[in-house]
């Protein structure tokens, strides 16, 4: 494939979209890997947290409470280095397949900022960009907020009718994301079983905790399109539950084991309801259930960023140790070969050249939409301009 740079004037963001939210393949000039971003030194921590919490009026002294997680790691979030590694892995896989598209990288909350990357892309001559994000599920913060950030930054740079940015579908149940967890859970079960055997507990009971980021209950209920019903009234919750079942069904060693979906990394005012149970509360209840070992699965996360390293590898594992539970945390997909290959498959679903027409999904909920349905994952704080949605306005004359 060649990345022929187009010089098109104003475009139609709904061009080629069918009634199911599936977009016809197009020519693209570049790929954008979009992520959350993170600080890369002690002096970056508070400015980064100000970016994350912009508009909420949170004083620096409260931000410093969260900053301790980063400060314990030298003020460095691992997410940026992980994104550099993922960018390189994507470039290598695209090259291996003969797909000649450059990979750009931009963050929502730290350098390289998406706004700057969009301007640089336009100045280079790119006119159509296909975006893939490091957030997998459907909710405001993991999908629509990315679409808003792109829309608002296109407007700020004056590129809203000059540069088109489309987005690949949410890929929570794509084999490329799910299969690395299947492999990881299988290996973690073996490790926890070995720990129990070493304690003489050959018949020890193991429970599997699938952990994801907690979000406000109202945001969870607003996730997904309005014209579908979901388990527990939430696409966000339903997608995680469906994935957990798909993983368990693929692991014979897990047959008969109990499992549950738990949450982590809650923030915000204590009077606002968030998804529960918290992982540490769930772990605390396990001994009374006769559980001797725990497998912790970071099902909501693509890579081992700070919330995985702190909330799971530090706090949750400390809780397990205090309770005398054998425990292991499975890897995130990171740059697993299957995950990287799956991301390139997702990109090729949308490219005209080297197109992949089959869209796999391992749960009954997918494959998800290329173009989000009207009102999908609504911003309860007030709607903003977005891209890649049926109710988008950016780029429309």
TrEMBL record:
Fe(2+) binds at residues 213, 307. GO terms for biological process: heme biosynthetic process. GO terms for cellular component: cytoplasm. Its EC number is 4.99.1.9. It is found in: Cytoplasm. It comes from the Bacteria. InterPro entries: Ferrochelatase (IPR001015), Ferrochelatase_C (IPR033644), Ferrochelatase_N (IPR033659). Its main location: cytoplasm. It catalyses: Fe-coproporphyrin III + 2 H(+) = coproporphyrin III + Fe(2+). It is an enzyme of class 4 (lyase). Fe-coproporphyrin III binds at residues 77, 146. SUPFAM superfamilies: Chelatase. GO terms for molecular function: ferrochelatase activity; metal ion binding. Keywords: Cytoplasm, Heme biosynthesis, Iron, Lyase, Metal-binding, Porphyrin biosynthesis. The keyword Cell division does not apply. Pathway: Porphyrin-containing compound metabolism; protoheme biosynthesis. Pfam families: Ferrochelatase (PF00762). Involved in coproporphyrin-dependent heme b biosynthesis. Catalyzes the insertion of ferrous iron into coproporphyrin III to form Fe-coproporphyrin III. Belongs to the ferrochelatase family. PANTHER family: FERROCHELATASE (PTHR11108), FERROCHELATASE, MITOCHONDRIAL (PTHR11108:SF1). This is Coproporphyrin III ferrochelatase. It comes from Arthrobacter yangruifuii.
